Amino acid sequence: xxxxxxxxxxxxxxxxxxxxxxxxxxxxxxxxxxxxxxxxxxxxxxxxxxxxxxxxxxxxxxxxxxxxxxxxxxxxxxxxxxxxxxxxxxxxxxxxxxxxxxxxxxxxxxxxxxxxxxxxxxxxxxxxxxxxxxxxxxxxxxxxxxxxxxxxxxxxxxxxxxxxxxxxxxxxxxxxxxxxxxxxxxxxxxxxxxxxxx
Length: 198
Ligand code: HEM
Known about the structure:
Blueprint: H1 2-25, H2 32-40, H3 42-63, H4 65-70, H5 72-97, H6 104-129, H7 133-147, H8 149-162, H9 167-177, H10 180-192
Helix pairs in contact: 1-3, 2-3, 3-5, 3-7, 5-6, 6-7, 6-9, 7-10, 8-9
The chain binds protoporphyrin IX containing FE.
């Protein structure tokens, strides 16, 4: 069950990472608003896509305890790659959030997600530098739950269109619903495992 969950999560993360890679290398591809962002904010957009896709591609392997136990050196190397990817992707996200579609509700939703993404990842890095493994684990669970907002957004948004919710309403809701439930699940996961540090 646990393994099936990990495989599904990793597969979805890889799919969204591939989608972002496609958008980077095929400039004609993507939703219409993206053509605007490519012209207005190319640095923020490409930083966001590159950082986001690397965080999504690396994260699942870091979260798997068996893979982690196989090589601590690889875990440390990939961990640094993840932190840099979130810094780059998160700063890009903050810039994009200021002009996101559908106004203030999405600026705030994506903006807060960006701030928490950066803060949780930096906190995870600080904890491990201080030798606090339990704290590092807890903050990385929170950080990766937020990285997975890229997946939940791309599940909820199409679903909202299938059930006929007007796009503007759906997009405003999804700017929050793509990450708040992820954090709730992350907290549940943290609390159900003994020896946690909050
Ligand atoms: C977790 C923090 C994240 C925040 C705050 C965030 C924020 C944003 C914002 C504001 C936009 C522009 C939307 C608009 O203009 O309406 C955007 C677009 C996008 N983001 Fe993120 N994002 C995050 C994570 C990720 C990750 C991890 C990926 C993984 C690759 C990603 C991939 C994309 C893609 C592909 C787009 C282009 C829009 C699309 O085609 O769906 N984002 N993001």
